[in-house]
């Protein structure tokens, strides 16, 4: 099977958009977890980080967004993953809906 055997893979960044304006509000880039600003036009998000394939859920009262993640690339062998990639691989994460922390 050749799927997911190659690093680097596309970024798993999760983005939040304003539903009215369509502008990007924040980005959760696992390679730079302390930076929430959208990437500039000449920047890229960290490659090969875990992504979210499942539906995302939110709790308006708590102000949280719940995100499940898959594995970082490569899916079948994790020996080359960084500590940050491993921290959020195959996880359920709750993020602050307003500021992504």
Structure, explained:
It comes from Pseudomonas sp. 13.2. InterPro entries: PQQ_rpt_dom (IPR002372), Quinoprotein_ADH-like_sf (IPR011047). This is Pyrrolo-quinoline quinone repeat domain-containing protein. With 101 residues, this protein is mainly β. The chain has one domain. It is built from 1 helix and 5 strands; from the N terminus they run E-E-E-E-H-E. The protein has one helix at residues 83-88, and strands spanning 14-17, 24-28, 57-59, 64-68, 92-96. It has a 3-stranded antiparallel β-sheet with strand order 3-4-5, with no helix packed on it. Strands 1-2 form a two-stranded antiparallel sheet. A hairpin with a 4-residue loop joins strand 3 (57-59) and strand 4. The longest helix has 6 residues, at 83-88. It is globular, with a radius of gyration of 14 Å. 19% of the residues are buried. The mean pLDDT is 82.
List its traits.
mainly beta; 1 helix; two-stranded antiparallel ribbon; 101 residues; globular; 3-stranded antiparallel sheet; single chain
Q: Which helices and strands appear, and what pairs or packs with what?
A:
Elements: E1 14-17, E2 24-28, E3 57-59, E4 64-68, H1 83-88, E5 92-96
Antiparallel strand pairs: 1-2, 3-4, 4-5
**Strand numbers in spatial order across the main sheet:** 3-4-5
Our measurement of the CA-to-CA distance between the termini, rounded to an integer number of angstroms, reads 36 Å
Order of helices and strands: EEEEHE
- Fraction of residues in helices? under 10%
How many DSSP helices? Answer: 1
Dominant shape? globular
Rg value: 14 Å
The averaged pLDDT comes out at 82
Going by helix content, strand content and strand pairing, the class is: mainly beta
Question: How many structural domains?
Answer: 1
Residue runs with pLDDT of under 50 for 5 or more positions: none
DSSP summary, beta strand count: 5
In terms of DSSP E residues, the strand content is 15-25%
| Sheet of most strands | 3 strands, antiparallel
Organism: Pseudomonas sp. 13.2
InterPro entries: PQQ_rpt_dom, Quinoprotein_ADH-like_sf
Domain Pyrrolo-quinoline quinone repeat: 4-97
Protein name: Pyrrolo-quinoline quinone repeat domain-containing protein
């Amino acid at each position: 099977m050749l799927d997911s055997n190659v690093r680097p893979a596309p970024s798993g960044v999760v983005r939040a958009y304003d539903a009215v304006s369509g502008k990007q509000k924040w980005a959760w880039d696992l390679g730079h977890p302390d930076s929430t600003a959208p990437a500039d036009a000449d920047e890229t998000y960290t490659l090969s980080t875990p992504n979210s394939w499942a539906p995302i859920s939110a709790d308006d009262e708590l102000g949280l967004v719940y995100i499940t993640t898959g594995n970082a690339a490569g899916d079948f062998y994790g020996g080359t993953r960084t500590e940050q990639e491993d921290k959020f691989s195959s996880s359920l994460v709750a993020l602050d809906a307003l500021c992504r922390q």
